[in-house]
């Protein structure tokens, strides 16, 4: 492949990573028109369109996932050649998009991101916070950190820790509110606490609901009632105290995974291993052990 092809590939991967020509231009230190020209040049060489242009940016076309998987392998192969030539580039480098729930993006991952970036100034972590499903098959993210009973079939990864749940109430909750409950809706309605509450708490005792553990925590702090939270969220709120209930122990594995098309890419695999190690270091906190 000619040098021009390698250079074009760098621009194409930046757009795929960041989902935007403007962001790719800023990241690469060039102007908007240069990125557009390089992407068009690469698509012309391949004889196909790689991206779907939408109002929200550039998304990799579903049937072009293999092209990008091969492109990343080519990028890693070139990096290996450079390493052999004495121009080694750290594995923890480049742009990596990590998606997780708002709970992890607010409470756990920022500290871990800072810890990883302290090891190298060549790593750019894009943290994508959502409780909704992110399609890693469309390369919307490189790595997911998710609490789930099991991984989807097209994901490859490892269990890094276990997340525990506990019931909480405000330390100043009035006696007349102590039997009121804040329930879990939306994506959280499939969780173990939501299932237990739907069977054990009468509807008449449910006074509010939220689709985010961060929001549930604030509602509990405000004194609306009792609720279930990941233990590391509830324990970190000084305004809350644990509540004894008849609920069984509730836990869920925490996975660090990538789509199978990207899972073996050295750069992605290296960061996945580092993320897993950082989460494992926090295993007791995540489990909610006293």
TrEMBL record:
HTH lysR-type domain segment(s): 4-61
Pfam families: HTH_1, LysR_substrate
A GO molecular-function annotation: DNA-binding transcription factor activity
Coiled coil: none
Record bears the keyword Transcription regulation: yes
UniProt record, GO biological process: DNA-templated transcription
Keywords: DNA-binding, Transcription, Transcription regulation
The keyword DNA damage is assigned to this record: no
Source taxon at top rank: Bacteria
Classification via InterPro entries: LysR-type_TF_proteobact-type (IPR058163), LysR_HTH_N (IPR000847), LysR_subst-bd (IPR005119), WH-like_DNA-bd_sf (IPR036388), WH_DNA-bd_sf (IPR036390)
PANTHER family from the UniProt entry: HTH-TYPE TRANSCRIPTIONAL REGULATOR (PTHR30537), TRANSCRIPTIONAL REGULATORY PROTEIN (PTHR30537:SF3)
Family from the record: Belongs to the LysR transcriptional regulatory family.
Record-given protein name: HTH lysR-type domain-containing protein
């Amino acid at each position: 492949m000619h040098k021009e092809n390698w250079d074009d590939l760098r621009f194409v991967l930046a757009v795929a990573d960041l989902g935007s020509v403007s962001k790719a231009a800023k990241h690469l230190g060039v102007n908007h028109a240069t990125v557009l020209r390089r992407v068009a040049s690469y698509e012309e060489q391949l004889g196909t369109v790689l991206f779907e242009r939408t109002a929200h940016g550039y998304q990799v076309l579903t049937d072009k996932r293999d092209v990008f998987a091969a492109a990343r392998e080519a990028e890693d192969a070139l990096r290996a050649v450079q390493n052999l030539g004495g121009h080694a580039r750290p594995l923890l480098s480049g742009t990596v998009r990590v998606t997780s729930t708002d709970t992890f993006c607010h409470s756990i991952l920022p500290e871990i991101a800072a810890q990883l970036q302290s090891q190298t100034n060549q790593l750019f972590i894009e943290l994508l916070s959502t409780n909704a499903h992110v399609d890693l098959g469309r390369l919307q993210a490189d790595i997911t950190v998710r609490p789930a009973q099991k991984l989807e079939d097209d994901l490859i990864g490892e269990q890094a820790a276990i997340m525990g749940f506990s019931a909480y109430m405000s330390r100043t909750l009035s006696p007349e509110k102590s039997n009121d409950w804040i329930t879990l809706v939306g994506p959280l309605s499939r969780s173990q606490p939501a299932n237990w509450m739907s069977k054990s708490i009468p509807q008449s005792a449910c006074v509010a609901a939220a689709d985010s553990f961060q929001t549930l925590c604030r509602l509990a702090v405000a004194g609306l009632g009792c609720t279930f939270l990941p233990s590391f969220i509830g324990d970190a709120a000084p305004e809350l105290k644990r509540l004894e209930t008849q609920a069984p122990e509730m836990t869920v594995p925490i996975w660090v995974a990538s789509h199978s098309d990207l899972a073996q890419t050295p750069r992605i695999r290296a960061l996945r291993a580092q993320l897993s190690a950082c989460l494992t270091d926090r295993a007791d906190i995540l489990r909610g052990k006293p």
